[in-house]
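Folding Problem: From Residues to Backbone Shape
Fields: amino acid sequence; protein C-alpha cells
RECORD BEGINS BELOW THIS LINE
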Amino acid sequence: MYAILGTTTKEGNKMNFTYSEIQSKETHRGVSYTAKLLWNGKEAGTVENKGLGGCDSFYFSAKDYELMFTAQAKKKYPTLSEPLDALVEELWEASLVA
C-alpha cells in the first residue's frame, strides 16, 4: 500500500514522494507507525511515530531529500508549526484509500 504526493520541478519534470511499507499499531495514546519515504522510486528515508502523542521522527538518507520534503511541506502548509507532520498525515490518509 502506498500513496503518492507529486510535485513538479522548474523544468517541468514530475517528481513524486511515495509513502510505502507502512507498519502501524494502535497504542493507548494514538497510532505508532513506521513508513518508508521514496522519491521517484528511490528510498529517501523513513518516518516514524511512537504513538505517544509526540511529533513524527524523520530519518532521511540524503540531505537533498530532507530539503525537498521540508520545502514541499512548508509550501503546502505555511501556517502550521509542524508542516512535515501535516504532509506525512496527508500521505497516511491517502494510503488508506489507495
